[in-house]
Amino acid sequence: MNIRQLEAFHTTIETGSVTLAGEKLGISQPAVSKLLKSFSETCGFQLFTRSGGRLVPTLEARMLAVEVGRMFSGTQRIARLAEAVRNREWGEVTIAAPPALATRYLSQALSPFLAEQPDIHFTLLSKTSPRIGELVAAGQIDIGLSVLPFDHPNVHAEIIMRFSMVCILPANHPLAAKPVVEIEDLRNESFISLFRDDCSLMTIDRAFQLRGVQKRNRIEVPLSETACSFVANGVGVSIVPPFVGLDYSEDRLVRRALLPETFMDVWLLTPSGQPPSLASQKLADFIRAAVAPFDQRRTPVGGQTGPLG
Question: Which residues touch 151 (CB under 8 Å, ≥6 apart)?
Answer without folding.
Answer: 157
